[in-house]
């Protein structure tokens, strides 16, 4: 099947600044790609090149089968784009703004009207539909930008930080919207919120300093964590030291972190070697010692830790060596 | 010429933006007020005892010099400042659609202001028996010249995110285009420059072409001059946006 987006060897320089370095990836319909990276990593710049706003210094972008430099209009027709910061014409009301977008996109009048109704209802903009955009709160502005992007029901959605500035409920709203649309669309969202990746993305791509440094599912990303499949234990304080000594000798255990006291209990984290599951032997051993753990659970790993390790590059190796 | 739906959508939005704030109305009031002052006081409309609108039209270049940069300054600087240029240029329209749409909106706005001077035309018809063909051609000439000013202003507006800078630079450039036809300037050049150059400079001036039109003479060359001027500056506008939009 044809890819929704194909990016090959994309490169962008702004004078001395090498913002994007030889980035390649593909995206299929039905996929939600989380574009992760620290600030200034080159996420926005990459998205701007995919949408044809910026011209790459080198490389190719194909969107819905159209090379962005050869047939930009056809490519843009297939895309719904929310630029970073959700820019919009402040003096316009959301209604007038959507009508403008619809007209430029060549939507037939009646279809446009029904789409505006649908989108406004879906994103809950009824209360502000006739107020100038410049008077709206940040959360509403962001949603107006999102509504604009999905107005023509595009097959490809490119959203640059769609949940930035939203409160937790609104974030939840937007995420469920994206999840709903995911089945038939190809979606890229950039974010620096890691929980977002877990919540909605089928795939992630991590970019740091302009370079692609990870591509995989959120689960794969998580499995890179030192804590992947680690076991969390809560024990009576008096047993903690003994258990610790015993478990340290257990095969498959890489390290034991002391997480400190919690009331009359003590908490330990037993890290697994190479992330292999170790909960069964640990539970068995603890019980063999005649101790009933107050709590025993598996830790699947922390995305932010992985993210830090991946984006800080070589630091990863140093940390591994230390533990 | 058939305009694309995209061009029309941009023009419509842009024209709406002018009227979204009181600035448009203030502008029109100032325009009408100054047109009146120039015509009746400075131009000695009544004392001349002639039933024509020559004084009225003679002041248009000077009126436009200050007022048109005020109309054109926001066209692109605002888009670049607020980042909407990214939104606009990732919609399925060409750069030409966007540039033309914006220009046409500003031109239509100027046309509205110009049309609202009709009481002056009614006055002169009430007081005497003017040659209305000359007046009509003068209006056409004034409108064309406004388009020239606007195309310059639109292009300069694309070079900066700062509207004040856009205003000042547009004013200066427009000033040069007006001045180029004045004897003072031409005399300065005729002392040493080859006559062809002097003539070329003179023919670049708004005044040379505009004053012919205000006499009621429709010379295709004058009309073509303004058309070419507008075309050139709008083309330059697209080039400037291509170069500057990412900043
Ligand atoms: N128009 C520009 N001119 C110069 N440098 C730029 C421009 N846009 C972005 N950059 C630089 O490119 C790098 C990547 O920026 P960006 O793509 O916005 O990062 P992100 O979206 O991941 O936070 C940054 O170092 C930024 O300063
Ligand atoms: Mg960004």
Structure write-up:
The complex is a heterodimer of chains A (323) and B (247). Chain A has helices at residues 43-50, 72-78, 94-104, 109-123, 138-150, 168-181, 194-200, 218-223, 240-248, 279-288, 303-311, 315-322, and strands at residues 5-14, 17-27, 32-36, 58-63, 66-67, 79-82, 156-160, 186-191, 203-208, 211-216, 230-236, 253-262, 265-272, 295-299. Chain A folds into two domains: 5-223, Rossmann fold; 230-301, Alpha-Beta Plaits (2-Layer Sandwich). The radius of gyration of chain A is 24 Å and the shape is elongated. Chain A contains twelve helices and 14 strands. Residues 314-323 of chain A have low confidence and may be disordered. In chain A, the strands form three sheets. In chain A, strands 6-7-8-3-9-10 form a six-stranded mixed sheet, sandwiched between helices. Chain A has a four-stranded antiparallel sheet with strand order 2-1-4-5, with helices on one face. A four-stranded antiparallel sheet of chain A has the order 12-13-11-14, covered by helices on one side. Chain A starts with a strand and ends with a helix. In chain B, 80% of the residues lie in helices and 0% in strands. Chain B has 15 helices and no strands. Chain B has helices spanning 5-19, 23-42, 45-48, 54-58, 60-72, 74-82, 84-88, 95-115, 118-127, 132-157, 163-179, 183-190, 195-204, 206-214, 220-244. In chain B, α1 (5-19) crosses α8 and α10 (132-157) crosses α11. Chain A binds chain B through residues 14, 48, 51-54, 73-74, 76-77, 79, 81, 83-85, 87-92, 96, 100-101, 103-106, 132, 148, and chain B through 5-6, 8-10, 12-13, 16-17, 20-21, 82-84, 86-87, 89-94, 245-246. The complex binds adenosine-5'-diphosphate and magnesium ion (MG).
